[in-house]
Amino acid sequence: MKKVKSIMIVLLSVMVAGCSNKNSEQQEDSGIVIEQQTEDESQSIQSTDIAKEIETSVATDNIVEYSEYFQGISGCAVIYDEASNTYSFYNKENCEMEVSPLSTFKIISALAGLENNVLENETSTMEYSGVKYPIDTWNSNLTLKEAFETSCVWYFRQVVDMVGQEAIRTILKEIQYGNCDISEWNGSEINSLPELNGFWLESSLEISPKQQVVILDYIFGRENNFNAENLEELKKIMYITELDNGSLYGKTGSGTGKAWFVGFIEESDRKIYFAVYLEDMQNKDIVSGNKAKEIAISILSKEV
Questions:
Q1: What is the predicted pLDDT for the residue at 20?
Q2: pLDDT-flagged residues of the chain (< 70)
Q3: Phi/psi at 84 (nearest 5 deg)?
Q4: Are the C-beta atoms of 264 and 284 separated by less than 8 Å?
Q5: pTM surpassing 0.70?
Q6: Comparing C-alpha atoms, which of 168, 161, 182, 237 is closest to residue 28?
Q7: Per-residue pLDDT tens for 224-246?
Q8: Which of 33, 45, 144, 267 holds its CA 20 to 30 A away from the CA of 232?
Q9: Please, how many CA atoms are within 13 Å of residue 219, restricted to the half-sphere of its CB?
């Protein structure tokens, strides 16, 4: 098959426009001026390896019926098989809508911390302030692995602040992460404590399920500028369990009536990337990251 060259995989069908142009006008973010989108894209191409051409064949889209796995919960799923270069969509329109990444953004926060020497490895520790949090596992000093597994917001709030806005903005542009909007750096005050808020929690940053899959493929399956040792550390904290068809890596995310589970399964050199997103206020009592994970594992075990 004749291959079509593109600037990078993330510019394929899901990211034709790159970072969503919701903030094309100039705005000031804690003293850092965000330039117009066209200038941003030009500078991003020059400052990263995006300009390097990557050969890739045009992906195939399949529409699938996964309603039995969702059991009446409103949501969507996208699966990308790297070997066959095929996307499978359940509720495709919803898979292409941008929403808050919630705690799935901890994948990127951890990568940014590792790449910018804020974190060294899975044992890197942040100090607990002594504040009594409602989640008991947050009430002590935590390693990166522990914070990732317990989805500790204060830990990753520290990581993101130590990395800084400029470096976070740079990595989001390189991987073309949704709308790349970190203008609400401190978040939208959905929680009473400032260390439990951030731009990734029901705030300015948004991403679609399909974009989540494309970005994971770029990080773990394509040539990029990221340090190989850092990617191995990231895989360590993302590891969940063994399935019949490979090792499962991922991250959940939860909000009121909203939930994610994103990641990939790997067997030998083959990777299958996925994202399951739930949004259902009528069933908000059962919508959670664990429910999204349960749905995803059922699909991956029976359909892939």
A1: 63
A2: 1-18, 20-57
A3: -95, -5
A4: no
A5: yes
A6: 182
A7: 999 999 999 999 999 999 999 99
A8: 45
A9: 28
- The whole-angstrom separation of Cα 31 and Cα 33 is 6
Q: Say how far apart CA 187 and CA 199 lie, in whole Å.
A: 4
Closest CA to 81 of 57, 100, 104: 57
- 139 vs 152: CA distance, rounded Å: 10
State residue 40's pLDDT score.
44
Q: Which two tokens stand for residue 152?
A: 């500790």
Q: State the burial class of residue 246 (Cβ atoms within 10 Å of its Cβ: 0-12, 13-18, 19+).
A: middle
Tell me the Ramachandran region of residue 220: left when phi exceeds 0, alpha when psi lies from -120 to 50, beta otherwise.
alpha
Residue 160 is encoded by which pair of tokens? 């993101």
pLDDT at 269: 82
Q: Give the phi and the psi of residue 87 in degrees, each rounded to 5.
A: -100, 140
- Cα distances (angstroms) measured from residue 292 to each of 25, 94, 133: 36, 15, 25
Closest CA to 217 of 66, 44, 37, 13: 13
Q: What is the per-residue pLDDT for 56? A: 42
